[in-house]
Structures are given as C-alpha cells and as structure tokens.
What does this fold into?
Amino acid sequence: MRIEDAPIRIIASDASWIDPVAVEQLRQTAALEGIDAIVGLPDLHAGRGIAVGAAFWSRSHVHPHLVGSDIGCGMALWETETPLRKFRLDAADRKLRGLEEPWEGDHAACLAKAGLPASLMGDALGSIGGGNHFAEMLCIDSVCDDEAFASLGLDTARVHLMIHSGSRGLGAAILDEQLARRNVSPLKAGDDACAAYLARHDEAIGWAVLNREIIARRFFERLGMKGRRLLDICHNSVTADRGGWLHRKGAAPADHGPIVIPGSRGDLTYLVRPRPEHAEEALQSLAHGAGRKWSRSEARDKLRRRFTVAELERTRLGSRVICEDRELIYEEAPQAYKDIRQVVADLDRAGLITIVAALRPLITYKTRRA
DNA sequence: ATGTAC
It folds into this structure.
C-alpha cells in the first residue's frame, strides 16, 4: 500500500518569487510519516533541509526537527512612553551597547518568576544572539485601520521597540538530545517520549519569551525609557491544534491576536490583525517576515562589491543599523530579503489579515562585537 | 539558529 503524500498549499501570488529549492523541501517533508497537511507562506525560503516560512500539521505525530533548533524564536513589540519628538538618534546610538553580552541580572529569580526551573540557567538569558536576531526602535509610519489601531490603545506619536530573538543554546540542546536519541524519526503523540519532548519544548518557549522580556528591559535601561508589551508571538513551535499537532517553522500564529511582520532592517514592519474566515486553509499561520531572497553566502558575494559597510549602516529610510560584525551586516542587508510589501499584499489578498499600521525603523541593534 | 563543526 502506498500512502499518499500530504497536500501542500502555497499562499503566494504569481508576483512573488518562491525558490524552487524551498518547494522541493516542502515535498520532502510531505512524504514524512504522519504529515497530513502543509502550508507555505509568502515568505517561504529554503532552509537547512526544512523550508522556512511553513506550517506542518499532523494528526498523529510530533516531529522535533520540523520545529528546528531555535524553539520559541519570535517577535515581541512594546509601546514606549517616549514620543518621537523626544527621541534622539545620536544619543540612542551612543548608549546602545552590550545587548549581545551576558546579562548581569538575577537569572534564577527571573526564571522562578516565569515558572521555569533554575536548571535552565545559562549565560545567554537576556542576550539577542546572532543571525537575523535584532532589537529595533521604530515609529508609526502610517495607520491603515484607524478603528483597529484605536482598539489596541495605540498612540501614533510614541516610539516602539521590537525584539526578534529565541531560546539561544537551550532550544538547540533540546533538538540535539532528540537527534542523538532517535535521529529524525517522529514521536508518536501520547507516547512518554513525546510528552517528554513537549515538556522540554514548552520550557524553551517560556525561556524565549522571558529572554525577549529581559532584552527589552536592558534596552530600556540603556535609554532611560519605559514601555508596555503589546504582543509576543513565537514563529518556531509545535502546538496542539484541531486534535493533532501543528508545527510552525518560521510561521507566525493566526490565533494569538495581532502580530508584527517585520521587513528587512531597512524596510517597514507591518502590524496586522489575523482574519479568521480563511485561517484554517492556512493552518492558522501567517508569514513571519520578508523571507530571504539570497542565501548568506550569495548576499556577502553580491553586496560586498556594491556597498561599503558604512553605506549599509544607514538605510534608505534614514534609520541606522548597529552591526559591527562585517560579515553579518552583508548577510542581513535589506537587499538579501524579499519585498515585505509583496509578502503582506499576498496575505491580504488571500483574506488572511487586516493591515493595522506600518512601522518605520529608527535604529536597529544587532551587535557591537566585531 | 547555535556557550557552533571544520
């Protein structure tokens, strides 16, 4: 008996370029045991074996490697009390440093308060990490839905803070344990081994949420600011869904209230409200960002010839990028990413979102460490 | 992605 592969739906208009490598990766995962439905979002791009920007639903199994190593990675947004007219870019640039270095605070107390075991201690709590992670100050560029904006209690004059970070070494260790024990073979829902993984997974989620909270606190301390958290969403996770298990690999949830869909570091970020009507067709998932257009090595090769580091430290929107790692600033340049407008337009056209507002970057912090 | 493997 041949068991049919899971159906794959890709939500993207003809105007959106989707890497055939990423589509082939989805086909490979469609043939895995117990995978029943797959959705690719418009930011779909090739990953290391598993496509990023996708959701995988199974009625019977949990696949830790579909979640990946950065369990709990996500985006959080704060509204600060600071009006844009009082925000000084040069001063912020001078004061922001050290967010990639270990946090000197009371890790054990923070973990306990978050209901997490002290055994999850590690130097990384409160630090941004590498890759595409960042902390960014933004202002409101435009409001697209006045009613939705007002209902969130937002103020167009205020500066906002967005954090993209995850569970650092913790999530990686949890996936490594699984791979060492049973390679990529799936866990059968209900088995003790599955419950054990899910318990570890949930701890990594909690750790990642706490990590973003502490990074924001450190950021605010540096700048003498205060803020309230508006949202925190994970785009790498596996959760119980419609009697089965929903794996999100670089996919934002459509069932956790408003979300942010960030562009590249030189582009707008969109605050959107998920629409429930067609959410199930997209496995309750949305794009988590612009998505890569070029691989890291392609970006380095192409952009080193065209731009100096100094040029990439200023963006076309007038914002600044603090990234003293000169390899990373090329890898993460806006040119290496797809057009966020197209990604958001595709979700809008599919009836999956209402665009609430666009946010414009002021300063993006990645690392001071060369 | 990563208290990274080469």
In short: The longest strand of chain A covers residues 353-367.
